[in-house]
Amino acid sequence: MSHSQRWQEMFGPPGEEPAMRLASAAASDPGPGASGTGNLKHSKGPWTSASGTADELRTRTETSRSALRRGHEGVEAGAVGLSSVAALKSVLTSWEDRLQSVRDECEHLKGALLTVAKEMGERETAVEKSFKGVRVGGKADEKR
User: Fold this and answer.
1) Phi/psi of residue 66, nearest 5 degrees
2) 42-57: b or e for each residue (b if 16 or more CB lie within 10 Å)?
3) Model-level pTM?
4) What are the Cα distances from residue 78, in Å, to 73, 74, 85, 90?
5) What would you measure as the largest C-alpha separation in the chain, in angstroms?
């Protein structure tokens, strides 16, 4: 089946009401049950921003983890013989592990969010290019 045949199967012959319509690409009079503004656009801004936020949280988490360790330096030597030292050491280790897990997860999110931004931007560009030369009302769309 050719691309044109598949297109007509999904959307109907030219000049007729489409058999299928994306909710986000509705016409100015979308009809019952349809939604959307007709202005489907992607911006990598939110994905890139979220990646930056994850990286900032990663950095702050590591800074906090280091400060926590520094805050406990010398406690063992100054509290020799107290049973609370072992409990304090256990709490410190627990918090260090938690903060390290948060740091590592933020590192993963940073990369994953940047990948989404890149892929979405590339797909948007590819789709936009695929519409160049599409006939609209009998004329080739040359604006794009």
Assistant:
1) -65, -40
2) eebeebbebbeebbeb
3) 0.53
4) 10, 6, 10, 17
5) 90
| Residue 25 to residue 29: CA distance in whole angstroms | 11
Quote the CA–CA distance of 42 and 117 in Å, as a whole number: 10
- Tens-digit pLDDT profile for the chain (144 aa)? 665 676 666 666 666 665 555 554 444 444 444 444 555 455 557 888 899 999 999 999 999 999 999 988 888 777 777 888 888 889 999 999 999 999 999 999 999 999 988 888 777 777 777 877 776 666 655 554
Token pair for residue 47? 């994905």
Domain ranges of the chain: 45-129
